[in-house]
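Quick log. Single chain, no ligands specified.
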Amino acid sequence: MILMNSTQVSHFTLDAYFDVGLLKYVIFLIIMTFYICIIVANVLLIVVICVNRSLHEPMYLFLCSLFVNELCGSTGLFPFLLVQILSDIHTVSAPLCFLQVFSVYTYGNVQFYNLAIMSYDRYLAICHPLHYNTRMTCTKAAMFIALTWFFPILHVVIMISLSASLQLCGNIINKVYCDNFPIVKLACSDTTVNNVYGLVYTCTVIVALIILMFYSYIKILRVCFSGSKQTRQKAVSTCTPHLVSLFNFSFGAFFEIIQSRFDMSGVPSMLRIILSLYLITFPPLFNPLIYGLNLTKIRIICKSLLFGKV
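-> predicted structure:
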């Protein structure tokens, strides 16, 4: 094979697509429906939170950040996916490919940071209710939100910079969208720096966020078991949607990690594609429904907007 510098790779070929005949138009309509539903649901809740002053509280500000991130992540994937479904040649230019990597990885990292901060917010609200308003003000919440965007973006920029500097021996990515790890696997040059950076980031930042979430929910469970019935009801009503959202996201992230690191050729191609899209499809689709239906304030305002004043 010819050794190529990454700047000389003008395009990447997405090899996971296969000919489904006229069924591609049905798939196009399904994906389009998903995307429209994601936009409508997330925009609706963002507007509800921004317009209603009664929702200008830390918990709802974190939710607003979550929904904005889901819009950004979905927009980084779905328009590209819709074009590729109808195309006969599944290629993407190198700059656009790295832009999509930036969008998808920023979405995943911001989502994880956001869920971790939300678990800490619920810990303060349930375990320290008397001090909550002083420990978690709107100003502090805005600072946390800024950090949940700044650090993931910084991490992804460094990661892409390291990947873009690699010398590549090929340009075929066995996925339906651009992903960083398959690009790194195409490298002919030494990838030690990339691997060490990824390992250090995972072992420090990601592990720290996981510890924060475990600590928060262990403390919440202790309060639930030892507290009053009213405390348990408050914990269940506010923590259930967050836990569902966390498990939903974790399932998608877990499969993405497994698929990137291990040989999944034994898994049917269509199932592999569906599960690889799970992370950026189902959390943005179901999170607005989960929070909209479970959080009373949001549910009441949404009902009044959609069906008129009760």
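The longest strand covers residues 11-14.
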